[in-house]
Amino acid sequence: MSSEEAPSLYAAREPVFPRKVKGPFRQMKWIIMAVTLGIYYITPWLRWDRGPALPDQAVLIDLANRRFYFFMIEIWPHEFYFVAGLLIMAGLGLFLFTSALGRVWCGYACPQTVWTDLFIAVERWIEGDRNARVRLWQAKWDFKKVRLRAMKYASWIVIGLATGGAWVFYFADAPTLLRDLVTLQAHPIAYTTMAILTGTTILFGGIAREQVCIYMCPWPRIQAAMMDEDTITIGYREWRGEPRGKKHDGTTGDCIDCMACVNVCPMGIDIRDGQQMECITCGLCIDACDDIMAKIGKPRGLVDYFALKDEVREREGQPPIPVWKHILRPRTMLYTVLWSAVGIALVVALFIRPEIEMRVSPVRNPTFVTMSDGSIRNTYDIRLRNKHGDPRPFRMSLSSDAPLRIQLEGQDELTVIVGPQETFAQRVYVTAKPGTEAAQTDRTDLRFWVEDLDSTDRAYTDTVFNGKEQ
Prior knowledge:
Layout lengths: L23 H19 L16 E4 L4 E4 L2 E3 L5 H21 L2 H6 L1 H17 L2 H9 L4 H26 L5 H9 L5 H21 L1 H7 L2 H8 L5 E5 L1 H4 L18 H4 L20 H13 L6 E5 H8 L7 H5 L2 H23 L3 E7 L6 E2 L5 E11 L5 E8 L5 E4 L6 E4 L3 E11 L4 H4 L2 E10 L5 E9 L4
Antiparallel strand pairs: 1-2, 2-3, 4-5, 6-8, 7-8, 8-12, 9-11, 9-13, 10-12, 13-14
Helix pairs in contact: 1-4, 2-16, 4-6, 4-8, 6-8
């Protein structure tokens, strides 16, 4: 047996220090970052008037009252299918964009990418560009290194707190919660949630960074099933760039092996090695390479967005296929149809859902009661839901081919007042006179009606009356 130690199967992480780059894709990422973070931080503070009895926060996840408010839309717990539908649409949209344009979500709009970009921007602002950060990483600990690291981590903590703070504002009235947080009167859950989100934001966006995309996120491994040779993604035109060299005497390709594409990559990969799971198609390598090509007088596009099928055609001297033909193909059209179908179904369901909801539950123990005068009485538990922001009077009645009498427990009339956004339970008695067909028949169909006396909207539920079978 050899005395030599077995080689280690674990490789320590090499930190990635992306270099600053300018170009249209970097500019697009800045814009998307500003828009997405702006939406995230501003949304809890938007107001929407729903009436005196309802919250006026435009977007609110009200866990205490089991409601979800989104501007004029209100989702109740039993309407969770709307949330499920939105999740399905998000999944289908991800499939659609990945099959058409590769990992554009990962490269531009994924929260992990957005916050990582923000943390890198702060790090670059404090510690300098790539070379300065590499030197600082390799330097021994001294006052300068401690000072710069302290400034960076303090900035990260502020970003993390703002992230956690913005998130908890979605679950309570934002101005009230902010006041309670500042005065230390908020619920401990709010502080705990902010602490957890602060820590995870710093860990994922500031420390782990690309490791989250490579090892924690499942999407890089799923995307292969979504992409094919017609998918437009980032690639290196090897036929044009190889062999690499700086001679420019006709014996080398356009690539001068300057490593600019590698130095700007937030994932730390070399796009010239071909398609890789780690690539998030952010386009920064394109900006870097185009800048170099302009300086040496070569045409742009050595690294670019293109379909793998076009790369083969270019090698053979054929023109590329029009972009719209790559995008409009059976797979993407199928995803579009499915995505649209789910969206249309949700919109239709949203507009046809009733404003009044009634649920009738016959009391089965006992099925019926024989009164002292011989009449047969059935008992029903009725639940009325008022979805409006003000109290509403509801009048109950019934219809049946048989003569039946309705009575509300504890009520002299057939009208009840249901509070705003409340569910009201009412026990109802239905009686058939002795000797009538309903009293002597096992089952008699009947229909309970409820009418909103303010809006005249009506709703009904069918059930049966149980008699004493002769």
